[in-house]
């Protein structure tokens, strides 16, 4: 019973690697989708754009530095793929081009896979002469390794955030102590100045 529960959890996590979305693209507008990805991750996607006479749609995939990873003009239906080099935020943008503003909105369907989901195990099984059960075990092995790497990355990010918080707390503490010292010094100076002033005016002895 525990094995079935573990497999259910793994398969549910596995299904989270697929991002399918559908949206409307209005004439002469641009719509972008962004996602953060780790380094050395294979990403594949499929898109389909509803037909509209006289209107064209382009797409472009780029990273946060503006480097183009994939691009195509006048698309209708197709695929794209790329491999990430660094941990970065990647975006895919669809741009509508219409000769008039009175065009019609087009429906864009986008299905993106990354990591284990983007890997083709059917071809691997055929090339290595693996049985279906062996292919599935290989898939689950890669999935467990991917989940383990995700946990390691999450722990690393948690450590970095904790270090940042501790550093910020230390700086705030030192700044608070410095501010209190400055206020005490200013208050002491003002007291001495007023004392000398009142003595000069002979208001106090």
From TrEMBL:
The record's Pfam families line, in alphabetical order, gives: EMP24_GP25L (PF01105)
Q: What is its main location?
A: membrane
Presence of keyword Membrane: yes
Keyword check for Endoplasmic reticulum, yes or no: no
| Keywords carried by this UniProt record | Developmental protein, Membrane, Signal, Transmembrane, Transmembrane helix
- Which Gene Ontology CC terms are recorded? membrane
Q: Write the signal peptide boundaries.
A: 1-20
The way this protein sits in the membrane is described as:
Single-pass type I membrane protein
Q: What is this protein called?
A: GOLD domain-containing protein
């Amino acid at each position: 019973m525990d094995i079935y529960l573990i497999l259910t959890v793994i398969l549910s996590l596995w299904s989270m690697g697929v991002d399918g979305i559908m949206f409307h693209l209005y004439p002469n507008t641009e719509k972008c989708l962004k996602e953060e990805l780790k380094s050395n991750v294979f990403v594949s996607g499929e898109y389909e754009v509803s037909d509209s006479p006289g209107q064209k749609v382009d797409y472009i995939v780029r990273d946060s530095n503006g480097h183009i990873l994939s691009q195509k003009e006048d698309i209708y239906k197709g695929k794209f793929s790329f491999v990430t080099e660094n941990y970065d935020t990647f975006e895919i943008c669809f741009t509508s081009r219409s000769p008039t503003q009175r065009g019609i909105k087009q429906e864009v369907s986008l299905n993106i896979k990354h990591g284990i989901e983007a890997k083709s195990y059917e071809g691997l099984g055929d090339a290595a002469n693996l049985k279906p059960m062996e292919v599935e075990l290989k898939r689950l092995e890669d999935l467990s390794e991917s989940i383990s790497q995700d946990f390691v990355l999450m722990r690393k990010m948690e450590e970095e955030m904790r270090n940042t918080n501790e550093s910020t707390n230390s700086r705030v503490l030192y700044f608070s102590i410095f501010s209190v010292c400055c206020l005490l010094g200013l208050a002491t100076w003002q007291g001495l100045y007023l004392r000398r002033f009142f003595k000069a005016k002979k208001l106090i002895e």
